[in-house]
Amino acid sequence: MQNVSAGLSGNLTSPNYIPVIIKVCVVAPFLCIFIYCIVLMLYIFASNRHFMDSSRYILFASMLVNDTLQLLSSVVLFLLAMGRVRFPIVFCAPLLFFSTATFLNTPLILATMSLERYVAIMYPLQCPPAWRSDRVWIILLCLWLISCVLPTVDFSIAETRPGVNELSTPIYCNSAFLNSSPIQTLFKVSLNGLFFAAVALVILYTYIRILLETKKMRQDRASVSKAMHTVLLHGVQLLLCLMAFTNPITEMLVLLHTYWLPSDIYFFTFFCFVLIPRFLSPLIYGGRDKSLRDHMRKATLCCCHSLRTCGKVKPSGF
User: Which CATH class is domain 2-10+17-288?
Assistant: First the structure.
């Protein structure tokens, strides 16, 4: 706690902290809007039983929760970096572990949602037991285990720098400090590449199979076509996730061709390639679903009406 206090101490109105305050003010409105939409969607899922009886909406709700956790952890790391807060590795490693696990869990959920659409089209009358709404939680648990295995192996082969004590030496909490070993860097890059390539193949496979099924079926083409567009949307969401891997290249190009400060470049890449995709991904998917969109509109109108009603109520006199 002393390290955190020391990192945050100082005059926040000094010239050095003015850019930090501006960046925080830019991020805060987007984060508030995102949190509001996510909470609204989760409230709709919890208050309407028919949503939770569908494997599709259960998977979507899990993606909302995962993206929210990933976004919050990313914002915390961003604030720590902007405030130049330092603390021991024993406190930094869990935060990085959580951020990495939720980041890897997103494409896994996208692939699972694509497979769910594939199963719904291929087996419309007899859904396999594993994809029923009362058992899909087992699949989600397996996804979390897989996403946690990769950062566990990554951190287990990490090499501590000389003179750094995990319990007492304060450091800046970023993955670059912990990924100092060449073996660890090679492992992380290779595994991430294979990981996202496998997810992309799953989404591509389901899209092609549903596309071929569309040509065979003469009835119910509308639902099959909708499922095909849904899988295509999952592919777009995967591309948004992959944008985070362009951070090092973008930072290098911007640094070579501009006179921006490194902190400004870091904020630019963080905002464009980490925050914006996380903001857009669930909102696009949620806004595309007509049933969910109608419930969101009704809930928003009811909330606004309640606020106006409370504002008109006058306090009783004594």
Answer: mainly alpha
